[in-house]
Structures are given as structure tokens and as C-alpha cells.
Amino acid sequence: MSDTEAIAEADVALPSVGVTLSKVDKVYRGGVRAVDGVDLDIEPGEFMVLVGPSGCGKSTLLRMIAGLEEVSGGEIHIGGADVTRDLPQQRDVAMVFQSYALYPRMSVQRNMEFGLRMRGTKRADRAEQATDVAKTLGLEHLLKRRPAALSGGQRQRVAMGRAIVRRPKVFLMDEPLSNLDAKLRVSMRAELSRLHKRLGVTTVYVTHDQIEAMTLGQRVAVLRDGVLQQCDTPANLFHKPVNLFVAAFIGSPSMNFVSATVASGKVRFADVEVDLPEGSPLATAERQVILGVRPTGLGVAGNGHPVIRAVPEIIEDLGDERHVVFPVAAPRVDTDATRAAVDAETADDVALLPDDHARFTVKLGIEVAVEVGEPIELAINPSRLYFFDPETGEALT
Amino acid sequence: MTTTAEKTVVAKPPKKRKERDFRIQSKYAPYARFGKYAALLLFLVFFLMPIYALIVTSLKDPSEVSVQRVWELPSTWSFASFEAVWPKLQDGLFNSVMLAVPASIISALLGAANGFVLSKWRFPGADFVFPLILFGMFIPYQSVLIPMTETMSFLGLKGGLDGLILVHIIYGLPLTTLIFRSYFSGISDEIIEAAEVDGAGMLRTFFHVALPVAPPAFAVAIIWQFTSAWNDFLFGAVLTTNKSYWPVTIALNNIAGGQSIPFNEAMASALIACLPTLLVYVLLGRFFMRGLMAGALKG
């Protein structure tokens, strides 16, 4: 503990800089628009996560910030300076690649020193700085080794160390944890958070894993088809999604959707009728909506909330909680937005079900007795309902 | 996998079981293996015949050498033939080393630079330039002989080794470019990008990151280049006017091309002349296969 504190004190606080993207476009030859008019203001010292399903343009955007990809339109500013046309080596950013991209013929130490060497730092200083960083990452005993002689986790840390040693203005990370096994990924996630807190360097982090995004990001930018959907704190993304896509993408298990009608202050779907929460803008409306319910928005009946009868179809026992999937007698919501969001999730059992009824997933504690096929009653919390326009997918708030 | 396979097989009738055994060890297997090795041995003998004749003849006493007794072992082992040809080959060998070493190393280095730029540091028009360079491989030596000699005399490089080296470097470029381009194509783009972000420009990325991973490609390129420069006769004969610059191939030709052909001397000099190439193969050969695979899989 005292060790960590000593290191924390030894670190010179770096002046953080912000990154501003204005109307950034990327159009590939052949007219494919990978990034479309993205405006993003990353605060100095902020941990910003870019998230979205594969092919949403998040990596392209990151590579444009790094200078590895040409910008087709718009401007990129780092610390106030326009770097849109600058080469990567002129931008003073460091990048951690998905494959780690370590230099195979150099020792760990030389890998970490490479950036300093290219910038003309003296040999002794280089060695000192590399050793310092290696210590904080627990790599000191590996300094003389070649990358081939390291485990995946160690290589990942070397890649991280190589970025840190440089003390760049901005860290850019392209799915740096995706090649690690699940356990190591969780511990590295914590380590990353800790590192960011200590170094305070502006970080842009790309991932397709929304849990990684939510746990790491101070703010998270959700992208779809190259268009920025919403950029907000993890809590706001979860509780106030601006559209169907964000709502479906964020949260695990995903939000449940069903077609419903709103009339005279009530929302109806299947045989269920729920009073709209007080002050709802839909109170006087009469229209079709897509109703969204989080798996935690349903609970055990008995607290006065309206009740839905559920016949469990699938029960996933996770030890400390259960995910219960049951059909709802209403058509499934199948829009481009929900499909795009669901594609990113690796295991979505709902998508594989045969008929076209909507499926709801509910998270229940293990104290609730459930059996497949045995009906149970679940309460719907009216204050935790989400409403979306079926045409545009925009949230109705 | 195997355990489940075994279980299912055990459950099946004995006939099936027999089939499974066949894969592991058939009762005909020893005969099949004998046949295979016999065939391989036959091929081996066939391919080694010339080398056998070469070595045996070169070690015979001149009086023993005759076409009828070409397959017989020498009754007395003699190094007389080697002693006889050595003075005639000495200068040629030296010239060929002075020619093939720089020609192969410089050509490989330039090819590495070309290959790097064509695969990892691409410029507009790279897809047009590469086929153009490759085209050089398909130009026959003979067709450029006259313009080449004229150019070399114009440059004042005709007659000596320097001109010959230059010609071999240029003639080797298409192939070395191809080798290195294929090899570098197989290297992850992210490593190059990492160097870029780390602050290295094109040259430093090439020297610090690309070259250190390229030894297999160098082995392939140098072996090819060394062999072709060493074995070249035509350019050597045309471009060197002075006897003192003749490469070993010309010396070899003079020994073998006399009125009465002393077989033993021809064989001994051929043996001496091919030793350096053999040495390069042995020294670089362990990279050779690796390099070829790296080139074959990608690009």
C-alpha cells in the first residue's frame, strides 16, 4: 500500500489536454462512409470510451485521432492545436493496439524505450524512465526478455508500459483487453482505471464490450454506422438512452422491448395495463410506442405495482441471480436499431426463439422460486419504463 | 476426441473396428513402407549419380580417368587434379567472391527498401510501380546485351568488376523486391503503425522495426542473388575485357573447353567452383525454408 502511495507521489502530474473532434468524416474510396459528422469534445484528463457494434466506425475514429487514418472531412484538435493533417509522430499521442504490436526483435526494455529513443531522450534517462514504469506495472524482472518469451497478459502490460513511458498528451487504446482471458481482463480493467486516475492523461478507449465501456469510461460515446448516437456518463446512458439503439445496446441482459399503445394516461401491451408515471409527457398522448423495460425493471409482485403473468421458458442460473426468459403475448419488436444493437451481443437467446412473440428477460434473486413452465407473477415498476417512437426510434421523454 | 471416437467404435460391430485399426497399423504397412523407402532410395541414387561421378573422377589419378571406368572407385586416391587446376582457378574464384558478395548484399538491401515501401509505407501509384519492377525479371539477358555494353562503356564501367557488380545488383532487384514485398506483407501493419505513433518516420521504421525482422527474407534473397551472380557466365564474358577480372565461370569454361578434355581437371575445378555457393546455402539455409514459407503464405 505504501509502495503505491510512494509511486503516486513520484509521478509528476502532467498537464492534461483535451481532444476536440468537429464534424469528422471518413469516406473510403468507393463511397463507404465509415464515420459521419462526429462531434465530440473530450475534456482534459477524461477517460472517454468509444463503443458500438463491429463496423460502427469506432476504431476508424480512434485511428484518425492517432493520425493513422486520413481525415476526409472536419477537424481534429489536440490541446487546442489543429492536428487534422499532422503525421502520427507529430501528434504526441501513444497507442495501445489490440494485437499489442510489440517490436519482436527488441527486449521489453527496448520496446518501452523506443518512443523515447525516437524523440532523442538520453540513454540513461530512457533506462530510468522505462524501469520506473516497468516497476509500476510489475515488469521489472522481464526487462531483458523478448516479447516472444512473455505471456499474453505480460505482453499486454508491456504494450501499456510502452505507451505510458512516453508521457504523451493522449492515450489511444484500441480494444487492448480483447485478447486476454475473461479473468485477466477484469483485473486489467481495474488496473487501467487505477493507472488513469494516477496519471490523469486524457484517454480514448475503443471497445465493443459495453461492460468494459460502462466500467472504464467517465463518459461513453455510443456509435452506430459511423454516427454518434449519444455521449454521456455511463449512468445517463443506462437510465436516459436517447434512442432505441442506445437503449438496446447498453445493459446486459439487454432491455426488453414490446409494441404498446398509449392512451388516456395508460400504456397497454398484451393483456397488461400500466399507469404512466406522473408527469409523463405521454400523459395526454394517444399513439403507438415501443415500450422498453430493463431486466431489473420487473420484480416480484406484491408492492402494489401492476402485475404481469409470466411462464418461464428459459432459466439461466448465475449463482447469485437468475435470468428468466418468458414470452409476452405481443409481437416482437424487430427494428434495424434493435437488431444492430443485438448483433454486438455474443449470446442473445431471445433472438434465437422460434415464434414472433416478444421475449422478456428478468433478473431475479435466487430466493425467488422459479421453474420452467410454472407461471409466476411479476410486478412492473412504472417509473422504470422507457418509451420510444416506433418510426424514428427516438426516446419519448 | 480420441476417447469418444474409441467409445463409439467399441460399440460398433467388429468389422468397423478393423477399419479403425487400418488407419493406425495395417498388416500390409511394413511392405508399403518398404516399397516407399525403396522408391525413395532409387530416386536418391539417381539424383546423386552426377555428384558421385564428379567427386570420384576428381579424386582419381589422371592416368586412371576414362569414360569406361567412370563409375569405378579410384584405385589410389589422388589430389593431383586439384593441385593442377587450383592455379588456374585462383584468380577467378577471388573475382567471383568480390563480385557475388557485394552484388547479393547490396541487391538484397535495396530490395528490402523497395519491398518495405511497396508493402508497408505505401505511396500513391505503388500498385503501378510494383508490376513495373517485376517486369524486369522477365527480360532475357541476351536481349539487353548490346544496349547494356554500350551504356557501360558510356559510363566508363566496362571492363572491370564494378560494372559487373552494378549489372547484377540491378538485374537482381526485381526478384529481391518481390521477396521482400511478400515477406513484409506478412508482417502485421500494427507493428509499423506502433512505430509511427512512437515517433519513427519512414527510414527509422525501416531500420529499427522492419529490417530486424527480415533475416529470413535476407537469407532467401542473398542465396538467390549469390547463386545467380556466381553462376553467371554471359555478363562476365561480355563485360570483363581483361583476363585479370574474369569470374570463375570463365576460368571453368577455359579448363573444360580445351582441345582434349581432362575429365579429372574439369571435375575438380567444378567441385571447387561450386563450394562457395554450397557454403552460402549451408550457412543461410536454415532461414531459407522459413523465409520461403513466410513469403508463400501471404502476399
Automatic annotation (TrEMBL), chain A:
Q: Which UniProt keywords apply?
A: ATP-binding, Nucleotide-binding, Sugar transport, Transport
Q: Which domain of life is it from?
A: Bacteria
Q: Which SUPFAM superfamilies match?
A: MOP-like, P-loop containing nucleoside triphosphate hydrolases
User: Could you state one GO biological process linked to this protein?
Assistant: carbohydrate metabolic process
- InterPro entries assigned to the protein according to its UniProt record, in alphabetical order: AAA+_ATPase (IPR003593), ABC_transporter-like_ATP-bd (IPR003439), ABC_transporter-like_CS (IPR017871), ABC_transpr_MalK-like (IPR015855), ABC_transpr_MalK/UgpC-like (IPR047641), Glyco_hydro_18_chit_AS (IPR001579), Mo/tungstate-bd_C_term_dom (IPR008995), NA-bd_OB-fold (IPR012340)
Q: Which GO terms describe its cellular component?
A: ATP-binding cassette (ABC) transporter complex, substrate-binding subunit-containing
> Which segments constitute the ABC transporter domain?
19-250
Q: Which Gene Ontology MF annotations are present?
A: ABC-type transporter activity; ATP binding; ATP hydrolysis activity; hydrolase activity, hydrolyzing O-glycosyl compounds
Q: What is this protein called?
A: Multiple sugar transport system ATP-binding protein
UniProtKB/TrEMBL annotation, chain B:
Keywords in alphabetical order, please. Answer: Membrane, Transmembrane, Transmembrane helix, Transport
Please list the residue ranges annotated as the ABC transmembrane type-1 domain: 93-284
- Where is the protein situated, by its record's location annotation? Cell membrane; Membrane
Transmembrane stretches in the record are: 37-55, 93-116, 128-145, 165-184, 205-226, 266-284
> Sorted alphabetically, which InterPro entries does this protein's record hold?
MetI-like (IPR000515), MetI-like_sf (IPR035906)
List the coiled-coil residues.
none
Q: Share an example GO biological-process annotation for this protein.
A: transmembrane transport
Q: Which CDD domains match?
A: TM_PBP2
Per the record's keyword annotation, is Membrane included, yes or no? Answer: yes
- Kindly state one GO CC term assigned in the UniProt record: plasma membrane
The way this protein sits in the membrane is described as:
Multi-pass membrane protein
One matching Pfam family is BPD_transp_1
Family, per the entry?
Belongs to the binding-protein-dependent transport system permease family.
Q: What is this protein called?
A: Glucose/mannose transport system permease protein
